[in-house]
Design a protein that fits this description.
Strand content: over 45%
CATH class: Alpha Beta
Radius of gyration: 18 Å
Mean pLDDT: 83
Structural class: mainly beta
Largest sheet: 12 strands, antiparallel
Number of helices: 3
Low-confidence stretches: 51-58
Number of domains: 1
CATH superfamily: Mitochondrial biogenesis AIM24
Distance between the termini: 34 Å
CATH topology: Double-stranded beta-helix
Amino acid sequence: MSTFLSKHPHLLDVTLQNEKVNAVAGSMVAYDGSIKFEKLVLGGEGLFGAIKRTVSNERMSLMACAGSGTIWFALEARDITVIPLQGQKMFIESDSLLAFDQSLRTSTAFAGLRGAASQQGLFTTTVEGQGQVAIVSDGPAICLQVTPSDPLFVDPDAFLGYVGNITQEFVLDVNWRTLTGNSSGESYQLKFSGQGVVYIQPSER
């Protein structure tokens, strides 16, 4: 399996030994060894996933990198976090995905009101299987635990993704201060319940 390292907060090192890794098109900043790059047809998600993104005008352009050597990835000098998956499914905002092992499967899932509220679109990306995924964030990604006794409330603009047996709800904070125009600006939140981990960034889109 390819090796993901983030020795620098804004740079991802991926070492391949006759292997493949998928990444956001245009995110390679340097490489050594013998590596070939090619665009992934239909974004690697198959026809149905491509149709869903096309209908909602949400494209995610990916490339496959194959061979032996080391590739360095970066994206707009954003912070990079490597997350190992052990058979779980991760739900992640499409613009927060940087790279992932070829062994992982990607698809799309309906984001509902969460996507509309955060202007991330109607669909979100899922990554599932055994391997590593690298995400980007504005500032270091923060990992917050969710337990059955402690649900978590998150600003949609700070949300990156989650892993685990989690359900999410869109919560509209309609109260006196909101109705009179004196709200805090946090009039809607995402509520996460269950057991798992939610990733957020220390900034808002």
